[in-house]
Amino acid sequence: MASNPSSSKGSQSEIKKSERNKNVDTKNINGKCRVCSENVTGDHKDIECEMCKHWFHAVCEDIEDEEYEVLSRHNKGKIHWYCTVCNDSSVEILRLVKKSAGKSSANRY
Questions:
Q1: pTM over 0.85
Q2: Containing H/E element for 36?
Q3: Helix, strand, coil share of the chain (percent; to 5)
Q4: Is the pLDDT assigned to residue 11 strictly greater than 50?
Q5: What's the farthest any 2 CA atoms get from each other in the chain?
Q6: Which of 31, 43, 48, 86 is the most exposed place for a label (fewest CB within 10 A)?
Q7: For residues 26 and 41, is the Cβ–Cβ distance under 8 A?
Q8: In the chain, which ranges are continuous DSSP H helix?
């Protein structure tokens, strides 16, 4: 994607961990970005998907700087972030659950 990957984290604790690691080591901290396959390091704004637990550069997931700032200011659990693949999958799961729940309530009568 972009030549200068940025990324974001979904919680303050994850942001602080990354910032702490910046001072110690700029090598691969979180593995490879699932979009561009480049290393996710303490030098990048990065974010971990809450569902698949894979790391992404914010820029690779089209997370704007303003969005990154919002995500980084909130504690884990208040704002959730899912990668594109997991987000699409979760929407489909919710549709199936809703459809199933509708059939269950219709069968009660």
A1: no
A2: none
A3: 45, 15, 40
A4: no
A5: 64
A6: 31
A7: yes
A8: 12-24, 65-73, 84-107
* Two tokens, residue 86: 């997991």
What distance in Å separates the CA atoms of residue 9 and residue 6, rounded to the nearest whole number? 11
Segment 51-74, tens digit of pLDDT: 999 999 999 999 999 999 998 887
Contact in structure between 87 and 34 (CB atoms under 8 Å):
no
Neighbours of 70 (CB within 10 A): 13
Domain locations along the chain: 12-81
Domain 12-81: CATH superfamily is Zinc/RING finger domain, C3HC4 (zinc finger) (3.30.40.10)
Q: Tens digits of per-residue pLDDT, 25-41? A: 334 456 899 999 999 88
- Whether 54 and 79 have beta carbons less than 8 Å apart is answered as no
Q: Which two tokens stand for residue 5?
A: 């990957």
91/53 Cα distance (integer angstroms): 18
